[in-house]
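pipeline stage [seq->struct] | target=Polysaccharide biosynthesis/export family protein | organism=Halopseudomonas formosensis | residues=369
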Amino acid sequence: MTRFPLVALGVSTLLLQACVLAPGMHMDTDRLVSQDSAENSMVEMVQITPKLIAQDLAVKSQAEVPPELLSYVPENYRIGPNDALFITVWDHPELTIPGGQQQPSSANARVVRDDGTLFYPFIGNVQVAGKTLEELREIIATRLARYIEQPQVDVNVIEYNSQKIYFSGAFENTGILPVNAQRLTLLQAIGQAGIDPERADLSNLTITRDGQTYRLDYDRLTTSPSRIGEVYLKPGDKVHMGLNDSRKVLVMGEIPRPGALPYRTSRMTLSEVLGTVGGPSPLSASGKEVYVIRGVENIETETATIFQLNAKSPSAFLLANQFEMQPQDVVFVGAAGITRWNRVISQLVPTATILYTGARTEDEVRSNN
């Protein structure tokens, strides 16, 4: 990797003029590097090479599910307020269906009060919230034994209203998903909620649990071997699928159709981006001046990265097809004989940084709501 610094403000006019290239010439990056110290660098120039692609793929192939999510194992369902229970006492229809057999089960349901109690004949008020169905069955059977010889009791939940999982973002069915006695995996829940393919940023799935937010690359974890299928959802979890309307890839320069492309998956490549906008202009674009500018949160303290692709090389098409984009990347295709690199940097790096920071802030606000 080569450090690619900006010219310091105190450099003389003659030195600035030395950075200007005549039409038809290429940039001598080594010469520019020697004109400034690393301390004044605000960007880092990286050539897109097979080695870089291999390193990037190796890192991304290691995408894993946070161990905290994998460690949760659902326990038996615990009754909560507003759950509707159907309590059966065999051979005692007056306790099981006091409204008569002609009534539906819901008419004979017993709803848990907000304070977690319910009333049952002979035994009065019973604290049921937080108890499993088996625990409640034993409590009712034990207390009824004072009045009924060897009571046979069964307890079922016919309406689950106390425990919920919340879905927001780019799902077709956002809102509340009730938790029932069946264990629910993350993939099962997402299947029920349905992903909106046009609005979803599949690389940005978050789960907020007990005040902690976990970020998952849903696209990568579901298209390569991973343990995402072992993640169970916990009552109270908030699942958010990122929206791509605030996460774009900006394409500009010598191309037929400059603009912003929605970022949908973590597999969006440079070749896809260039192909969507019509590719570099054959009449005015420089084959060596294809850049990907990756912004940072704080341009004053962090170094932005600029990736350069030599599109004149036949192998460049293979590299571009393997180079994966990130949200808020800026793709710039320079003109043949570009003359002032510092001017390009001063305009594009702040733009990439503003896009990066703005999108991240908006996404965090949506995840917390």
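stage status: PASS
auto-comment: The CA atoms of residues 268 and 325 lie 6 Å apart. Residues 162-243 form a domain with the Outer membrane lipoprotein wza fold like fold (CATH 3.10.560.10).
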